[in-house]
Design brief:
It is built from 6 helices and 17 strands. The strands form 3 sheets. The protein has an 8-stranded antiparallel β-sheet. A 7-stranded antiparallel β-sheet has the order 1-2-3-5-6-9-10. A two-stranded antiparallel ribbon has the order 7-8. Helix content is 13%, strand content 38%. The chain has 325 residues and is mainly beta. InterPro entries: Phosphatase_reg/MetRdx, TIP41-like. This is TIP41-like protein.
């Protein structure tokens, strides 16, 4: 399979799974015992003298969970990503980076890719029956702070594409079949994973239990400083415990003095169950509204989304169950 220089929906999962499976010595051992893959073997002193590599993972309870993290994509490849996503790419794109979760019995594959996240960029934000869009049907504006800090002018940028890189990307789902024998090969199946709305919710009390983390990673997908007027970033984190795994995918954007957005997808699976729960929330607020409530006007107070996300109202929430059958 020829590589495109960046991970796509077609090549990303098969290529990474091929690499991870090469470090599986015996496929018939007890699936409840964690097997560390690729660079995770070196980090867990299984192959302490091995050379560091860009990919790592864990195999547990019939799941292969892994990642690849590498350098910022070179400019020529970024241009190809831009053509694939039909936009001018962000300043920093990690086109080869990927997080993957592969359920062996069902073939359900859930992964996160930069180019697919960028394909989901749009303006205005997504509209649904639950959505209450506050910055819709108009072009976003940039606040240019003047020397007099008490006065600001706001002007529109003459850019036709979604230059804030706002995305509702929740990860990519597909089914793969692993070929018997060697070489290790994966092919996409026509049948898509079954996904539907649910009244079930993630058990956050379960996640609060003190449980050793067997494997963890934090994978960046893209980042941009919005022409020095803020920040826009997409990344995904995962942690694997003996009871299951939890994934947090996060896009957040701050357009200085104008608006702040936070789109999060949380995914939780308990090993041994036939599904996982995926919860997507979209938060957004204008800075004028925050200022009117007495919150600070200096943008230095809004550089870490974790410190003020509680101030943002939920504009949309979607709850789904993905079946592993």
């Amino acid at each position: 399979m020829a590589s495109a220089g960046f991970s796509t929906l077609e090549n990303g999962a098969p290529e990474l799974l091929q690499i991870l499976y090469k470090t599986v010595d015996n496929e018939e051992i007890d699936s409840s015992v964690p097997i560390y893959l690729s660079d995770s073997r070196r980090k867990n002193n299984i192959e302490a003298k091995a050379e560091p590599v860009e990919h790592k993972g864990i195999r547990l309870h019939n799941w292969v969970i892994g990642s690849i993290k590498t350098h910022i994509t070179p400019i020529d490849t970024v241009h190809e990503i831009g053509k694939a996503a039909k936009l001018t790419p962000p300043e920093m794109v990690f086109g080869k980076n990927q997080l993957i979760l592969f359920h062996e019995p069902s073939g359900v594959c859930y992964n996160f890719l930069a180019v697919e996240a960028l394909k989901g960029t749009h303006f205005p934000p997504p509209v649904s029956d639950q959505a209450q869009d506050i910055v819709a049907n108009q072009q976003l504006k940039v606040a240019n702070a003047k020397h007099n800090i008490n006065k600001e002018e706001v002007k529109e940028l003459d850019i036709t594409y979604d230059w804030t890189y706002t995305t509702d990307y929740k990860g990519s789902l597909q089914r793969l079949t692993k070929a018997e024998g060697l070489p290790i090969m994966f092919t996409k199946r026509k049948e898509e994973p079954k996904v539907g709305p649910t009244i079930e919710r993630i058990d956050y009390e379960k996640l609060k239990e003190r449980e050793p983390i067997l494997w963890f990673d934090d994978v960046a997908l893209y980042e941009d400083e919005l022409h020095d007027h803020g920040t826009s970033a997409m990344y995904v984190k995962v942690r694997v415990m003996s009871s299951g795994f939890f994934v947090l995918s996060r896009y957040w954007m701050r357009l200085d003095h104008v608006v702040v957005r936070l789109h999060e997808t949380r995914t939780h699976h308990l090993f041994g169950t036939d599904h996982f729960i995926r919860e997507y929330t979209r938060k957004e607020e204008k800075f004028d509204t925050l200022f009117s409530k007495g919150h600070p006007k200096n943008m230095s107070n809004y550089t870490n989304i974790d410190t003020f996300q509680h101030l943002l109202p939920v504009r949309e929430a979607v709850f789904e169950k993905v079946l592993l059958q």
